[in-house]
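quick one, 234 residues, struct below
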Amino acid sequence: MTAKERVLKVARKVEGMLTDKEAFLLYLLAKNGPGRGCIVELGSYKGKSTVCLALGSKAAGREKVYAVDWHRGWKDAVKGGTLGEFSRNMRKSGVRDYVVPVVMKSEDAGRKWKRRIRLLWIDASHDYKDVRKDFLMWSRFLVDGGIVAFHDSFWEGPYRVVNDYVLKSGKYSKAGSVDYIAFAAKSRPGTAGKLRNKKLLLIRSLLKYPMRSEHLHPRLLNKAIKDVLLSDSP
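---
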């Protein structure tokens, strides 16, 4: 069984909104991503993405995952919240030793945070003001070369933050996209990197309305972005 097959076998047992490609991307970013520092996840729900991140970092003997979620927010139809199921999923998936639950709202946790971050995964509230606040508050701790990644990057909130605060900022390079995840590294782009960011901005703008937030099939999305970026080096 390949690493990908092992990861997906575990991840598929946890309820969540990730596609298989997204799940394995998070695993790879956690396992092989640049920089030194912890991994921070904003928005855990029942722990599908947490498991993928923890499996990746654990496979490489790297840093723990700090999973920030107050477990009483979005889509919470579970009486008493989602913390209980989240904890059970960490145990069943064999990553409890690699996950530090931070049971707080991201804003409250961010005020107390002091650690360096090498991978920042943002998947909490998709309201623009909340996404913007999460990004500005937590990206301060991102190490040089560290990765920031957003889920549902065609929803209005993440879409605007990715475009305005990442791709247009002149502070991020090596940008890319897999299914509904957009990601970039904290490093000033060179000429090729600037061109890549501009092309990604263009293709995102062209796909925004066909997407209608999340309804364009990922295969079409990936092909469109791959075709635009294929000839570039980050």
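The beta strands are 38-42, 65-68, 99-102, 117-122, 142-150, 172-178, 181-186.
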